[in-house]
Request: fold
Amino acid sequence: MGRSALFGSFIGGNNPASSTGYAEHPPRVGFFTDTSVCIGCKACEVACKEWNHVPEDGLNFTGMSFDNTVGLSADSWRHVAFIEQPRRSAVNDAGESDCGPGGKAEMRWLMSSDVCKHCTHAACLDVCPTGALFRTEFGTVVVQEDICNGCGYCVPACPYGVIDQRKDDGRVWKCTLCYDRLGDEMEPACAKACPTASIQFGPLDDLRDRASARLAQMHAAGVAEARLYGHDPNDGVGGGGAFFLLLDEPEVYGLPPAPVVTTSDLPAMWGRAALAAAGLMVGVAAMFVGVRR
Amino acid sequence: MSDSYYGRPIIKKPVWEPLDIAGYLFLGGLAGASSALGAAAQITGRPGLARPSKLGASIAAGASLIALIHDLGRPARFFNMLRVFKPTSPMSVGSWLLSAYAPAAVAAAASDITGIAPAIGAAATTVAALAGPAVASYTAVLLADTAVPAWHSAYPHLPFVFASSAAAAAGGLAIAASPLAQSSPARRLSVVAALSEVAMSRRMRVRMGLSAETYKQGTAGVLTKVAEALTVAGAAGAVLGRRSRAASAAGGVALLAGSACTRFAIFHAGVASARDPKYTVIPQRESLGV
Ligand code: SF4
Ligand code: SF4
Reply:
C-alpha cells in the first residue's frame, strides 16, 4: 500500500494510480472537452444513459434555453449546458446590447458537455468512509455500488457538485469514465457518440498536448476568450482527468472558478479539533478545582 | 454580482436530513462532554452529579448512533463504515471513535446504576471520558471537510464552537438533573461554556468571510439569534439556580436548547451557502486575484 493510500490523495504525487499503490498500471486516461465545437446535440447524454443504464430523471421544462437536464446528478452523468448571451462585441460600455441588422440582438450560443472531472486529488474519494469510492488503475474515480452505504459524505465534498444520491436507491452515482469499456480497450460511450469530436478521449498527456495546440490555434484565429479549464496539474485539485476548452468564465457554465480539494486543509482541521478536545477535557477538570463541597 | 449558470448552485447541497445530522452533532456533543463531566464528578466524590451525567451520556450516545444510521441511504450497510480506517475521512475516524466510545459510555452508566462490576464501570468511565471530548469536537471536522462554503471557511473556529456548545449542553443537563449540593462544578462549567460558545460563534462569523452572511439570514439567522439568547439565559439560570431547583432546571433546559439551536443554525447556514453559487464563486475569484 502506498503512502497516499493511507494518507489520502492530497498528499500523493501527480499520477494518482501510482500514488494509490498500483505498481504497474496503464497510462492515465481522461477527457478533453473542446466546447468550441459542441453543437448541443446531446448525443453524449443519451449514449451515457443507454450504456450505463442510468434511469430517467424527470422530463421537465425548465426554460433554460435547450437545457432541461439542468445539471450533473445521480441520474445525469453528462450534462450539456446551453448559454445564450449577447456577443461581447455587441455590448456597449453601458452594458446594453446593440441591435444588429433586422432589429435582432447579436447573440452567441455557448454549449458545453460537463462530466465528473476525475480529479487528481479527489475530495469525494478522500472523504468516503467505506472505501466505496476508489481509484482505478486508469487513474479514474469510481463508486463501487455494492459497498456504498449512502452516507452522503461525498456529495457536499465534491467541489464541482458532481456526485449525488439517487433518492429511491439511497446510494450515490456518477460517471465511471466507462470503467467497463476501458477494460476492453473501448473508449467511453459519450466520446464514441460525439459527432464533432468535442469530447475527446485518450491518455491524459496526449490530451493536454492536443488541448494546448487547439488553444494556440484559436488564439491565432482571434478567439481571445478561449481558455483551458482544469488542465493544470498545479491547480487546487491537482488537475482534472477531464478538462475543458471554454469560451467564457467557468462560472458562466456553472463551473467553480478555482476549486480546491477540501482535504488539503484536513491536517490543519484535525489539529484544531485536537486542540478543542484537549481544551474541553482540561476545561471540565478545571471546574472542579477549588470548589467547596 | 457574479455570473452563474441560470443561478443554479455550483456544489451539491448536503443530502443529510437536518434532524438526523444536526441532531447527531448535538447529541454527540452532549454525550462526549457529559462523559468527561461524569468522570470528574466521580473522581471528586460527587455521585449525585456523576450519575445523571453518565446516564445522559449513554442515552445521547445511543440516540446519536440511531440518528446517524437512520440518515444512511442504506442503513443495513452501516457496518461498511468499519470496513476500512481512513484518516482522510472524518466520517471513518468518527465511526471508529464512536465504536470505542459508545459501548464505554453505556457500560459506565449501566454499572453506575446497577452497581454491577464496579471495576469494569470505572474502566469504562475512563475510556468514555478520554474519548468523549474527541467525539464532541471531531464533528466540526466532519462538516468543515466539505466544499460547503459556510462550513469549510469556518474550520479554524468550528471545533471550538462545537466543544463549547457540547460543554454548555453537558453543564445544562447536569444542573437540571443533579442535587444542588453537588452541582457547583457543573454550574461553573455552564457559565464558562455558555460564554465561550457565544464568543467563539461570533469570532467564527467575523473571520470566515463572505459566507458568514448565511448565519444572519433565513432559518439559520433565526436559529443563531435564538441560540444566543437561550445560551445567555441558561448561563443566568445556572448562576441564579444555586439555591433553587426550579431556576437550575430552567437554566439547564435553556442551555440544552441553546446548544441544539447552535448546531441547527450551523447546519442550515451550510445548506444556504451551498444553494447560492455566489458563496462559491466570489471567494474563488478573489483567490485568483480577479
Ligand atoms: S469531480 Fe467531484 S465526483 Fe468527480 S472525482 Fe472530482 S471530487 Fe469526485
Ligand atoms: S455515499 Fe457511498 S460513495 Fe459516498 S462517501 Fe458515503 S459510502 Fe462513500
About this structure: The longest helix of chain B spans residues 245-275. DSSP finds ten helices and no strands in chain B. The pocket of iron/sulfur cluster (ligand 2) is lined by residues A 128, 130, 132-133, 143, 148-154, 172 (CB under 6 Å). Chain B touches chain A through 84 residues (CB under 8 Å).
